[in-house]
């Protein structure tokens, strides 16, 4: 059976156990697919890449809220009322 690997770099669990920081460094800051019996078991994501992913997900959620609210009625307010 074939499996889609969503990373440019992969390593075996054995390699990860032997030298985890070397495996992380081999991804040059990008996620690494960790394989178990040649199947992706999980992805090792460096902290900076994870933080970037979380920011992008937050941006997607904010964009969804903006699009949802674009069609809401507008309430006119003068600066003097504020």
Description:
The chain is an alpha+beta fold. Helices cover 44% and strands 18% of the residues. The chain contains three helices and three strands, in the order βααββα. It has a three-stranded mixed β-sheet with strand order 1-2-3. The protein is elongated and about 70 Å long.
What labels describe this entry?
single chain, 82 residues, alpha+beta, three-stranded mixed sheet, 44% helix, 18% strand
Gap between N and C termini: 65 Å
Amount of beta strand: 15-25%
The helicity comes to 40-55%
Whole-number mean pLDDT: 94
Q: Which residue ranges are poorly predicted, with pLDDT under 50 across at least 5 consecutive positions?
A: none
Spell the H/E element sequence.
EHHEEH
Radius of gyration: 22 Å
Number of helices: 3
Strand order of the largest sheet: 1-2-3
Helix and strand content put the structural class at: alpha+beta
Question: What kind of sheet is the major sheet?
Answer: 3 strands, mixed
**Count of extended strands:** 3
Q: What spatial form do the alpha-carbon principal axes imply? A: elongated
